[in-house]
Amino acid sequence: MLSPARSRPAPDAAASAVFRGRALPWVFLLPSLLILAVFIYLPALQTLRLAAYRANVILGTEQFVGLANFAELLSSPAYRQVALQTLVFTVLTVTFGLLLSLGLAWLASRPVRGASTYRLLLIYPYALSPAIAGTLWLFLFNPEIGLVNQLLGDLFGVRPRWLDTPALAFGLVTLAAIWKGLAYNIVFYLASIQNLPRDVMEAAEIDGATPAQVFWRVAFPLLTPITFFLVFTNIISALFDSFALTDILTRGGPYTGNAGATTFLVYQLYQDGFVNFRTGAAAAQAVLMLALVAFVTWMQFRVGERRVHYGS
What we know:
Mean pLDDT: 87
Number of strands: 4
Strand content: under 5%
Low-confidence stretches: none
Distance between the termini: 56 Å
């Protein structure tokens, strides 16, 4: 009689997944590396090279100027105004956008009738492209035929020139950017709130904590990891995703001081590179924005380990 075969442990999947040659992994990576090289690495290297030249796209001429493009930008009053406007725009968009998103997500997480419908309506703007969102706001706040001015004219007899007044145009673009980013933030906040430990908050309520104390003393510290993540993603979004809204609503204007009131860094780069054909200056601005994003990323990892509370 044959003895039953002894059971053998299954081979480790990680140990068995070994390539037979050193060239085979590179063959699998080759398509991705080619795409990255063509669309990311080579354009980045070309941008770095152009930042050191003063080029004329029409004539096809280039003149090496070293760091002159950077010196011209940093000493330009117009570029300093654009940088300041971008800073104010970013601070307002991130601060009010996150506060409003957190409040709406907290209300949407409450057990009320029709909560799923409310959540769907709150998340709906995320499905709109920035171009469509900008067109909607343009129709709403058009000084002549916009719905907002029609209501204000009928109720109060005023029709503000939203797109012609610098302060109003800046505020309009800021509000549009906050509204466009709400859905993205609400999705993350809502998912995080629904996964908060209920026993901890119930224990705080039993101990006599008010709803506000439960939110700020218990829930909000547990939401710091996702808040920290959203702060930096919203900073990057304010720096780059504001282009479509600005281009459709105001095209960088109205003009005030040395630059347009709603001209931000990414829109100034577009104007210099594709409208005025100052490719050297545009490349230098792209390098400066790359350095800014690198600094923001460094700050994300630097501050994250010290300020963020990760609950167990």
